[in-house]
Request: fold
Amino acid sequence: MRVAVLGTGQVGRRLASKLIEVGHVVTMGSRTADNADAAAWAAETGGAHGTFADAAADAELIVNATSGTVSLAALTAAGADNLRGKVIVDVSNPLDFSQGFPPKLVVPEAGSVAESLQQAFPDAFVVKTLNSTNNQVMVDPGRIPGRHSLFLSGDDADAKDQVAELLRSFGWAADQLVDLGPLNTARSTEPLVLLWVSLYQALGTEDINIGVFTG
Amino acid sequence: MRVAVLGTGQVGRRLASKLIEVGHVVTMGSRTADNADAAAWAAETGGAHGTFADAAADAELIVNATSGTVSLAALTAAGADNLRGKVIVDVSNPLDFSQGFPPKLVVPEAGSVAESLQQAFPDAFVVKTLNSTNNQVMVDPGRIPGRHSLFLSGDDADAKDQVAELLRSFGWAADQLVDLGPLNTARSTEPLVLLWVSLYQALGTEDINIGVFTG
Reply:
């Protein structure tokens, strides 16, 4: 499958490399065509890189790994025509570091970044997932033993099925994937990165995730 | 110990009853002295009730079980003099239901309700905990098998120790209690009620909590 990964940070590079590893053709998109991180990643992995629009144009699936505070701008730059009818895997986290550490959560008017994107691009299929844990765990959940969880939120069942299949190819077991239901449940998972940050500070390891327990 | 429970909702009543059960003397506080829920609770349990200030005045420890959007007003009504030098167990959740369901998280200027309270009452010792799960689980964690977690945030180690002891008397095992560190980590746990709501909708049981997994 041809996949666009928008964003050149640690999360974008980690996901893009894993997508190549499991057999996809990946273009990394960034604000400019000459992003140094994207170029270095492409040289190392054999992937392609270009602008957000370059990456999205030929892609069958889009991964949004930009910062949640700029995701709407990034996808707007990618172009509504290039997103139409496609699944957007939204991995973004909306954090405000302007007043230092720890960051504050930004709650968009729509309730979550994922909902903002879906409202802006109603012909795409936004699925929120992966954002709640560390990038190394995202692509290698076996780093953490036990039945820890990964959440999915989205309004389109077929899109969620497609994303769940992708997640299984990353190593997530079917019973680790928790379908929370509609996309507005992303309101409840976008804040989870903050818990990861707190736990990282408290426990001193990056290999942290949460799991669901029921009575 | 003499404990004030501020708030007459399900969470306040549940915690107040449990506090009596484990041997404390409890006064439930509300905005007015004649709150019907508080009076009914007091009649049923042998507890006392009164205004926020009535409850806080004689208490050695304060439990804030008001809605996070009104907690600052409630504690202001309780009176700074009545809070000075006391531990405030902040169980509040700041949710905005004005645009329907699911609610949106409210992020106060301070970063969290807990931090807002600590800033307003610097002579008290705010400890955030319990807010991340259902009220029945709060006082009976054994309803859910396994090593699920309860988080504590606070700037004063002695206050956190005192609250941890209280939580153990509720049935929480020492290794279920996760001290996240300073009170600003409440930014990462106040949103967790939203995840509980999503999971409740998706899974159809109220006995839900999360646990921490590490590599």
Observations:
- Chain A touches chain B through 46 residues (CB under 8 Å).
- The first helix of chain A runs from residue 10 to 21.
- Chain A has one domain: 2-203.
- Residues 2-203 of chain A form a domain with the Rossmann fold fold (CATH 3.40.50.720).
